């Protein structure tokens, strides 16, 4: 047995274990580099380590550690003695980028406790989020206007890329009105309006969220085709629409609550109406993809929910009464679209 064990160990090196173990440093480097505006600095010009140190007020050793780590992650490139911004960071890590993640990173720093090992451990031992003193994330947003705006704007920047992708994967030209349930900033509804000129949209969310969404509707000059409707998804009747869109909503809730929402949509939609779920889906065995498994763990830290597998999402829509159920990749990251039609 000892010989067999040694043979198995010989087939591996420690590289993958180190890759996993050092993952927390990758996250911290990303958060800190954004905080000291490293990516903004390098977007404007290439800098040496000494210049990075001076511009960020970091000790030279710290500047070297941060720049080297970011370069190893594909966020920076070194040319001669200077560092420049890699295309990946230019696309996602500058505040001017259309698909900027900077809002997400700012939101993460505002809840620093959620990134500690003690918080992770406490949440897993309890089996539920320990954030906001046990208050649900969305109940907290309803009570805390400042965090609500930070969170909503963070989700807007995070969702721009996915929103532009899914609208190319389905035809909504025969629909008149899209209800974006839990729509946040309205980023998905606004993308749908840009794609289908006949469409109108209603962004349905908590009143403080709708106040933020109104600013985006005005910014994109969609006031004549889009409006908000404040309400509670569990208690408020949905406004009339012939398509219901849920992005990253079902993953916030236990399966029984997801079924409630699916049935609520089925009751509210007219015959021929469509439901669309936009989610990162597990494989059938719930063993990956890796980012979906991580997102699933993140839901435990922040919400009551979990990531669905494609069979689970299909089963929920079938149980609610929908037909013609289809699942397709949007072609953007790990995102998928699950759709059904009310007979």
UniProtKB/TrEMBL annotation:
<feature type="domain" description="O-methyltransferase dimerisation">
    <location>
        <begin position="19"/>
        <end position="94"/>
    </location>
</feature>
<dbReference type="Pfam" id="PF08100">
    <property type="entry name" value="Dimerisation"/>
</dbReference>
<dbReference type="GO" id="GO:0008168">
    <property type="term" value="F:methyltransferase activity"/>
</dbReference>
<protein>
    <submittedName>
        <fullName>Methyltransferase</fullName>
    </submittedName>
</protein>
<dbReference type="Pfam" id="PF00891">
    <property type="entry name" value="Methyltransf_2"/>
</dbReference>
<dbReference type="InterPro" id="IPR001077">
    <property type="entry name" value="COMT_C"/>
</dbReference>
<dbReference type="GO" id="GO:0032259">
    <property type="term" value="P:methylation"/>
</dbReference>
<keyword id="KW-0489">Methyltransferase</keyword>
<feature type="domain" description="O-methyltransferase C-terminal">
    <location>
        <begin position="131"/>
        <end position="323"/>
    </location>
</feature>
<dbReference type="InterPro" id="IPR012967">
    <property type="entry name" value="COMT_dimerisation"/>
</dbReference>
<keyword id="KW-0808">Transferase</keyword>
<dbReference type="InterPro" id="IPR029063">
    <property type="entry name" value="SAM-dependent_MTases_sf"/>
</dbReference>
<dbReference type="InterPro" id="IPR036388">
    <property type="entry name" value="WH-like_DNA-bd_sf"/>
</dbReference>
<keyword id="KW-0949">S-adenosyl-L-methionine</keyword>
<dbReference type="InterPro" id="IPR016461">
    <property type="entry name" value="COMT-like"/>
</dbReference>
<dbReference type="InterPro" id="IPR036390">
    <property type="entry name" value="WH_DNA-bd_sf"/>
</dbReference>
